[in-house]
Specification:
single chain, 73 residues, mainly alpha
């Protein structure tokens, strides 16, 4: 996800976040960010499963059409 972030970069990001949001607000921001990422992941997985289901339906239709075409002389 973050290919070139080392420990020093993460510490710098945390220090900047602490300065910007303050020590009282930082846990709330982290919690909200975690919930947002979790919801995004769930929505992505749901969309992916819908696409997979649609693909399977199309494959079944193609098989049925191919079978019908092969049966006709």
């Amino acid at each position: 996800m973050f290919p070139n972030l080392g420990m020093s970069e993460l510490i710098l990001i945390l220090v900047i976040a602490l300065v910007v949001f303050g020590p009282r607000k930082l846990p709330e921001v982290g919690r909200a960010l975690g919930k947002t990422l979790n919801e995004f992941r769930r929505a992505s997985l749901s969309s992916l499963s819908e696409v997979n289901n649609a693909t399977e339906e199309v494959k079944e239709e193609i098989k049925q059409v191919a079978k019908i075409v092969q049966e006709k002389p």
